[in-house]
Predict the structure of ATP-dependent DNA helicase RecG.
Amino acid sequence: MSKVSPAEEELLCKSVRFLKGVGPKRASLLSKLGVETVEDLLYFFPRRYEDRRQITPIKSLEPDSYAALLVRVVGVEKKITKKRNLNLTVATVTDGTDIAQALWFNKRGLENLLSIGTLVALFGKIKENYGMLQILNPEFEIIEEDALPEEMGKIVPIYPLTEGLSQRWLRLLIRRTLSEYLSYVEEFLPEDIVLRYGFPPLKKAILGYHYPDDERGWKSCRKRLAFDELFLLQLGVAIKRRQMEEETSAPKLSCGGPLQMKFVENCLNFKLTSAQEMVLGDICVDIFRKIPMNRLLQGDVGSGKTVIAVLAMLAAVDTGYQAAMMVPTEVLANQHYAKITNWLSKLNAEVTLLTSSLTPQERAKRYEDIKSGRSRIVIGTHSLIQEGVEFRELGLVVIDEQHRFGVLQRRTLMDKGSYPHTLVMTATPIPRTLALTVYGDLSLSIIDELPPGRTPVRTQWIGKGKLKELYEFVKKKLLAGNQVYWVCPLIDESESIDATSVQKRYRSLCEIFSDFKVGLLHGRLGAPDKDETYRAFLRGDLDILVATSVIEVGIDVARANIMVIEDAYRFGLSQLHQLRGRVGRGGGQGYCFLLGEAPTPEARKRFKVMCSTSDGFVIAEEDLKLRGPGAFCGVRQHGITDFRVADLVNDVDLLDIAREEAQVLVENDPSLDKYPKLRARLISTLGETLSLAITG
């Protein structure tokens, strides 16, 4: 194979602006599609294909089908539609078997191109109107008399578009770019991997994915390109993980110390589940090593992750180090502080709360306690990472509800110590493919068992026409001593959004349930007001809490057994599951009502899943299918899951292969010295994204 010179390599980095027919305006439109360079354009793959291998005679056309035609124009006229005042171009066409009409809306100047006698290739949807066959807004290509149409008789790519670009123009640009620049693309996969899995060469895969000959060939090309994306990310993560293990030294913590043992024996009124014991065992093995633990702990709502976090933090304290827990909201910080302080009251272990609502004097005192080491366990919000917070010896960091924090926030807390062990927790189950991809540098533990006595929450979808029956059910449960969450998507009424606000629902519930106490909680309340409302609900001074989704994370009230989620279609699947997890936590039967209509097929799917299962991991997989990986856990802004080809829902097996190959390669050649082209491709592809991924 001939070598590609650096100058030729730079051609792939050239801006698309300088390609023939592009210029500044179209370059700006291509940028909206993520296409900045020639290489971006080569890797800008179709979203679907149209099979134009069969040219259909007009006499054989079927209404509501798609067809490719080769016809001659026999008449053209312009019209203005009566109903919507649109410009309409109508071309009467024939292929000798029959006559049809081609219709275009708002295509100015088209009548000048389609003069009588022009030979044209058309592709589009067929309709029948007043006995006349019509093809609506078809793609077209004017055919020279001595030439064959380029798109006829082929499988044709259909690309994502933005306003101002047409399929026809974009296909022509990509076809020219492939012809001119594909030869400069270099193979970077090790030859043994290519041969082991029967992958096509990279150039062939790129060309075949744009212009497949058949389905089998397309699948082969797709598999190669998807593997490339997954392999590069797994390779980068494996390298970073190895570097961390070789270059860092964490505190050596041990389990089984006096505080940890006393906590288990004297402070808990329940036994750990087998799943909790298994996870604790994983953590104990990790923190006894000098390699910093990076462990992701997944557990459904109510599975007992906080107990595991406390046991891990006590291991740090027993060994002479400090521990910190960072949570996303002040309400949750206060709740954790109250629960953990109560648990540890018999152990004389100092627990400090650090939130933004402290007075300057309180904050200064707690800063000093943390710096001196008097505070052994510190619980707080993002206040933990503010300038001025200094730990004496931070040995363990726990990050709760990790998806609520930015990557850099998490990194900043870890930097407060000298490579402390890190336990990242989430009650939002992350599908395995996403966990391996986004959190590939973290070991994974799962609590897949609920404590004894927890019964699944009964979930029902009801329309607002049944509000009266719902009110009666709620009143009956209130009289029996239960408490109720009533969640709405908006704080205030909106003219543009058709949804009920907490303000409006709060007023109506105060009237309907005048014999009961109703509270209001939303994000615009000040921290003291939010805290007091939550505490009143916890004490039982409030019977109904009307709230936005601020109650989604962590709030734990034993007698709250009814959850009403109004206009539920406005919430994502995982968010609905999180909200549902707030009820049924005290041993009583929990009920969740999804209130309102489902205006879209996706909303109906979400409701169906919610009503059929309470398994958070099943829900997570369905959510990934519905929403895609980027939206799922806030990683889209980092570019970590923005794959052009790979699909984290369907490419699980390919991901496993990519991960295994990456680990073997890094084990044998940590610096990729034997594979300079692979190393160069890794750096150019991932860049800063990789450094973000490894801090997840």
